[in-house]
Request: fold
Amino acid sequence: MNKKYTITAFFFLTLSIFSNEEWIDGLCEDGQGYIEFTFGEYYGECKDERTEHGFGTFIFEDTSNAFSHLEDGTVYEGEWDNAYMQGTGTLTRPDGSTYQGNFYKGRRHGLGYETKPDGTGSFGMFENGNLSSKDYLSITSYGSSNVRQFWRNENGEGPQQYIGGMSRGERSGKGTYIWFGDNYQTKSTYEGDWVDSSRTGKGKFIWPDGDTYEGDFVDGIRTGKGKFIWDNGNTYEGDFVDGKRTGIGTWIAGRRYTTDSGKQYEKGEIYNGMYKENNRHGFGIVIMPDGTSISRLYNLGELLDVDGFCLEGNCEKGRGSYINAKGELYEGKWADGKRHGAGTLTNVLDNTSVKSLWEDDVALCDFSQAKVIDRKLTCGNAENSNASNDQKQIASDEKKIKTAKKINAIVFSDLHWEMSEEEIKEAMNTKSNGVCTDMGLVVTCFVNNFNTLLILDSVNERIYFSCGVYNGCSYSPEEMSEIIGKRFGLRDWEYQIEFGGVYGQFYCAKGKAGDKICTSKTVGEDGTTQNGVYLAKGALGSSGLDF
Reply:
């Protein structure tokens, strides 16, 4: 429940604790300085050579004529405001006893924690330097929107304090709230945005054990994007919903350890994928410290050995969400266990999605092209919408075959690994009209523009064609594998997430001579995606595939 508080401002006449007559010497450069008085010396942040301001330390000496209530050797370390001890600080006496807490105009005021020489201590509420029986105190300054609030035992949850913005009786803007434990060091802290006395916006929360969360909050709950760091070094960065890891995120093991259930994690091990209520749920990739990786499917933390499963809803008839082992998430309508109706297909790896009109597991058209004809969603006119599935499939196949011939003629003709490297370089030079960079082991040619690449990698023995070379950027790696497969009679395409040290989506098939051709989709360092085709070294040309 949000609360409104009446801010009690007290203004008692008090002078700076250090008068000009007591000042001896000082210097202040770039906000840091040293100031000497008749009863002590100061080191820390300063406004000028006479004025402590910011954070600093004062060592009291020869206090017989001033501050007689303090023994020589008493030390104050903390915040200062125009020569006053003001804010949070610690006063340590020669016998080892301390006061840790709030100061105002040079006096203890607000919540504080006193320890005895034997180390035992307790919280107390202080007012104008003396212990107070009040359960709540506040401080504000005339003309300021900031406030300091202190509770002795708010809602039975122990001592608490808030320092930050206030508007119309509500915590607002930037502020820090602390829940104290048994002593001044044991505490939970929130620092960040406030709206109507609620932790909403960007903030950072630190628990007593050292666990830390930094990111989005809604009504005091972790919701949105954020990063959680455990005291053991493990980290998670990604989506949160209602205080739990839900959505897409990346978890990294900070050390090698074994869980209570016997599961062992290696330091540097990474999981990048889907979560639900703090469990791995859906598709994800596990990357080991040596760089090896494997794609996985999980159901609320349980590792599955399936091609896919229904995440939620009804994936037989109605609306449901289905994830497969390729990292493709379908969310939409179903009929007879097939995608049927409006649905969105999202690639979890690169977070790209397309909403389409589906029929019997086939995406017919982009949903923006769908129309309502005779109370039915269709792609185009009624005549096309009534075509049989066989006719649609034939038309689709003919289109892909026609495109395959076009792609073959432009890209793969006269380029294959039966050629010598010099012949390959010469052919690439011809295709790019001589716009090439030859670094010896790697040759890069630009076809039409600097984003359309042909790359000969002699070290890894492969040729790469970016999709702009063959006008195929509108095709996914899977669609390109179908096109190339039909054109050249290649079968048994395999999906993999790594090819020659490059990570992404790859569909690869072997030629008759054992060499590989892979369609690909990768993500660059700038976050952009790039489709292309790789030809791994071998005699693909002699196998009847005339590249």
Observations:
- Confidence is low (pLDDT under 50) at residues 1-15, 381-413, 539-547.
- Residues 275 and 320 are 17 Å apart (CA to CA).
- The two ends are 71 Å apart (CA to CA).
